[in-house]
Amino acid sequence: MSIDWDRRRCSRKGHITYAPDEPRLREKLHATTAVGTVWRCLRCGDFALGEPHGSGPADRAPGVPRGRALRDLFVLRFLGVERIARGLLIVVAAYAVWRFSNSQNAVRELFEADLTAFEPVADHWHYDLDHSPIVDTIRKTFDYKRSTLHLVAVGLLGYAAIEIIEGFGLWRAKRWAEYLTVVATAAFLPVEVYELTEKISYLKIGTLVLNILAVLYILLSKRLFGLRGGREAFEAERRSASLVEVEEAAGEKPEPLPVRRRPTATIG
């Protein structure tokens, strides 16, 4: 059983109605019933009782996410939620680093005491705790200067702020957030590739693939940095989409958009 996402969204957010100035379209988008005037929803196509939410030329109708546009919005919001969740986790990490910087000696003593308790188990399995790479790495962190750890905490907070701002911007489908996401994500791709050369894990591979797909998707679908005609083509596409939505809601087949053909060279 397939899900009608347009009707599902209307049931949650309400219908979107519009009265175009063009008499031909206006006549097909409304009707008079015994209980009052009804207008056809631009998103799901059902009739809704009451006055329209707006009026004007058909090509100035509100952009209503439906079909492919609704799926694009779902993808952006999925990426937005992922960015916000990641940002909150980084905030937790920054707080942990800051707390650790203020109590390094206490943590060192606690670690060494607990390590002694694990020595009999390690000896039983012939594991040398004193020369363990993991233990050596943890012990090195105790030697970091407090000021260095504070800088790390501040850096993590800055990174978390970028992620959270990205997330909220993507949730609201803001174009500046799309640019910020592409630039920030692409900047960290070399770091993620380098981490894979150090140690491969399914989590690192999955994160790298997700970030690459996110960058390519936003670049191409939103026509950023002049790709596929850039902002001009993106705005033209949005304006034509408004007219198409009105015509489709009225039950008419929209006229195909003109296709620009490249001039062919002639050989003299």
Topology at a glance:
Blueprint: H1 5-13, E1 19-20, H2 23-29, E2 30-33, E3 36-40, E4 47-49, E5 55-56, H3 68-101, H4 104-124, H5 133-141, H6 146-171, H7 175-198, H8 202-221, H9 230-249
Parallel strand pairs: 1-5
Antiparallel strand pairs: 2-3, 3-4
What does this structure look like?
A 3-stranded antiparallel sheet has the order 2-3-4. A two-stranded parallel sheet has the order 1-5. 18% of the residues are buried. It is mostly helical and 268 residues long. It has helices at 5-13, 23-29, 68-101, 104-124, 133-141, 146-171, 175-198, 202-221, 230-249; strands spanning 19-20, 30-33, 36-40, 47-49, 55-56. The protein is built from 9 helices and 5 strands, in the order αβαββββααααααα. Residues 254-268 have low confidence and may be disordered. It has 2 domains: 1-64, no CATH class; 68-228, no CATH class. A hairpin with a 2-residue loop joins strand 2 and strand 3.
| Domain module count | 2
- Helix-strand pattern: HEHEEEEHHHHHHH
How much helix, percentage-wise, in residues?
A: 55-70%
Beta strands, count: 5
Output the radius of gyration.
28 Å
Q: Which residues sit in consecutive blocks of at least 5 with pLDDT less than 50?
A: 254-268
What characteristic shape results from the CA principal axes?
Answer: elongated
How much of the sequence lies in strands comes to: 5-15%
Number of helices: 9
Provide a brief overview of the structure.
The protein is mainly alpha-helical.
What structural keywords apply?
three-stranded antiparallel sheet; two-stranded parallel sheet; mainly alpha; 268 residues; single chain
